[in-house]
Amino acid sequence: MHLLYWILCFVATFCIMEFMAWFSHKYIMHGFLWHLHEDHHKKDHDNWFERNDTFFIFYAVVSMGFIITAENTSFWQGWPIGLGIMAYGFTYFMVHDVFIHQRFKWFRNANNKYAKGIRRAHKMHHKHLGKEHGECFGMLFVPFKYFK
Fold it and tell me: How many CB atoms lie within 10 A of CB 28?
């Protein structure tokens, strides 16, 4: 039974992170921390590292905090929560940075309906270069209108 709770906690955390990604992007990245996210929309730099990349550090610290807490206390839920955040971060990195933005030249030939929909939705988001009017959505649960 403990394993079932562990798995449910991990899956719930992963799904909650989709909401957190949407919320963070809409209200924080396109809000009061726009100065960190702006270089993701306006490629006015020659550096491979973007100021926008600092957001992953925040979530990595949160993930590590849960894992360290679980290791040093009886809060066993820290393991599946921390690993769920880490798994979402890895998935986000693979979809957003590797697949969509091609920061690494992997998965270049993926051309199925889901891949096209993800790219189309992200392109609509980047259509607006400013802080306002950037359509925000999650990474995995993209509106169906983009899957034609």
Answer: 16
Yes or no: say if 143 and 121 are a contact pair by the CB < 8 Å rule. Answer: yes
pLDDT of residue 51 exceeding 90: no
Closest CA to 97 of 145, 42, 56: 56
The Cα–Cα gap between 82 and 84 comes to 5
- Structure-block tokens of residue 98: 């590797």
Calpha distance 40→52 (Å, rounded): 6
Q: Residue 15 and residue 139: Cα distance in Å, rounded?
A: 11
Tell me the pLDDT tens digit for each residue of 7-38: 999 999 999 998 898 888 888 888 898 888 77
Collapsing DSSP states into helix, strand and coil, what is residue 78?
Answer: helix
% of the chain exceeding 70 in pLDDT: 72
Burial of 66 (0-12, 13-18, 19+ CB in 10 A): buried
Cβ–Cβ < 8 Å for 99, 118: yes
Q: 11: which 2 tokens?
A: 């899956």
Distance, CA of 45 to CA of 48 (rounded, Å): 8
